[in-house]
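Two proteins were folded this term; both appear here.
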Amino acid sequence: MTTKLKHLAITTVILTTLCPAGRAADWTQFRGPNDDGTSPEKILKAWPTNGLHELWKVPLTDGFSAFAIGGGKAFTLVTREVDGANQEVCVALDAKTGKELWVKPLGVAKYDGGGDAGAPDNKGGDGPRSTPAYNGGKVYTYSSRMMLQCFDAGTGKEIWSHDLIKDFGGRNIHWESAASPLIEGTSVFVEAGGAGEGLLAFDKDDGHVVWKGQDDGMTQSTPIATTILGERQVIFFTQTGLVSVAPKTGAVLWRFPFKYKTAAGISPVVSGDMVYCSMSYGVGASACKITKSGDTFTATELWFDPNNVLNSHWSTPVASGGYIYGLFGQAKFASAPLQCVDLATGKVVWSQGGFGPGGCTLVDGNVLVLSDAGDLVLVKAAPDAYTEVARTHVLAGKCWNYAAVSDGHVYARSTKEGVCLDVTPK
């Protein structure tokens, strides 16, 4: 081996040691870098008895928005009084210190009491439900009044914006929009609900319309980007059901009809060639199998359960090995169970109560659960039994969202505060 190659080999070993696999991944948008609620990182599993090391904790006002992490910053939406009125506000924090770097008002914040549901001692806190997205030095927000905006992530200066109600015939819904913007490739995807332009893709850099189409009415669901049977696609959950489109053209690849009533809050969940969706308010849950013959896709129902057993209200489950893990059941706000469900059959494999409608993240072979009451719980992602690995209380207030994992840290928030915890493997 030449001296030059020896130096290269030594440098490679040093870099590998300093930057181990499974580390340093930004959590750039709703449901993370893979758009499926999963993190590629390795985390600490033996949590200290006195709790995880807290890097920072800061007050945050009302809202159910989660954190997006990118470019050394943490972004979320809150409600604040601006110019004498309650407004939705995008807040940029230093990801290492929690210091507030900039804020940007997004418009009027007025809701319909949705935050009053839950445990008797944990009511209120209603606010923005959408989570910002970060990409290439820009941050994207989608307000409850359907304003889609792009800001410079360093300064908060607006780069472009669209009022989807005025500009695209958007038809907002009861409890207003709760969806987050989806970044996939060079585009930003949202539902708007206007006739002939119910589904939209905008260029992420300058905001021009890439494509628009379909008449589907919007829901509170955030679309997802995924690959099924070798083809990249974006799946929307609309008032007609699941709609899969080609990201670059908007051409419909397949549809799966599903009854709509009142609200649909979760994103579709994909495991291989199976897709799960659900709706509360007496509708139920279902899964379909996607097949392909030539260029034609077909969605066929695997099962449908009309009861409030397999339906997720707004907490999107995560998938692993043909099973989904999530917080299920509309009527059990205070104690909604974490369940493992066989996606092919709809069979509940195990169920553990006491979590409430929080959120789930899949990381390092475990489900990281943020409960309604602010407990952070690590559970093995295994179908054989409910196995709790670690638990600690991290937040006051109501937590109707998930925890983000980025660069060895967990970022979580409630209706009262936000926190950054060290979960770097020791």
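Next, the second protein.
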Amino acid sequence: MKTMWNKLFDISFFDYEYVYKDAFWLLLIIPILILWYILKENDKGKNVNISTLDNFDEPPFSFISLAKHFNFIISLIGLALIIVTLSKPQDAKDVEKFNKKNIEGIDVILALDVSGSMMAEDFKPNRLESAKKTALEFIEERPNDRIGLVVYEGEAYTQAPLTNDHALLHDLFLGVQSGLVAPGTAIGSGLITAVNRLRESDAKSKVIILLSDGVNNQGEIDPITASEIAKEFGIRVYTIGVGKNGTAPLPMQTPFGIVMQQVEVEIDEKLLNSISEITNGKYFRAKNEKELQSIYTEIDLLEKSKVSVIEFKTDPPEKYYGFLFIGLLLLLISKLISNTLLKSIN
């Protein structure tokens, strides 16, 4: 109840923005009505020729006359408040907050390897699901960052462009799966696609987190060339190699159904390290989910820079409630006075 009362009477005329400022021209009606009222009152006097004023005392104080003037004044105030309501007042601070704001953050693209080897089960339930889980935890810890998602195997594509809508990003992450495009591991294609998503960013800090569990064996873009391009755009690339040393269990489709086979873990650490060195980033190796989480935690400590963000939420809160309520209340009081106390007064 207290909150509703405060909202109703939250009136601060000069602190508001007015959407329909032309409505204030209607306030010219007020001086016109005042002039009409004065002329009307003066016109009520009648000229009577008398020989003397001796029998006339000072007119007694008229409460009815005072009430009539008071009633006219409150009706004018009520009308003025209704006109202010028509101008659609909004809090200036809220307008700025809802339309555009500066927030602290960085622009990040997550480049995720979704090749068939990411289904290996040395992570539980597998590398891909573990990578998705830890990446989502990273996103939740950075609510002020614009984050996008690029996925790659034999080809690369953008799953989500840079966005502050982390709820949408979460849903898009859940839809990531292996086998949607050509098989293989095109690290260069994944990296250059991520660079393209960041190259027009105005953030001072632009970062790509590239995760892979294999060796570059597909794509027309050489990973080193892609790294040089990233460097030219001031993009740091943090690379993560995923997988245990030795072998890992990988489900394989056979004529007899899915069979678990032990496959060699082959990660081109030299290449991933070169990518990070060229772009002034850092290479990490994750042999289990806990190590992967700690890597994201370390990356989470990156510097933050101001990024201008356009908010597309709801309209700013309206601030006409108090004006409308008081205006209608005053007009109602004026009407009640006219129909009761002043009813017999012409």
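Residues 30 and 76 are 7 Å apart (CA to CA). The chain has two domains: 2-43+62-96+318-339, 102-308. These notes refer to the second protein only.
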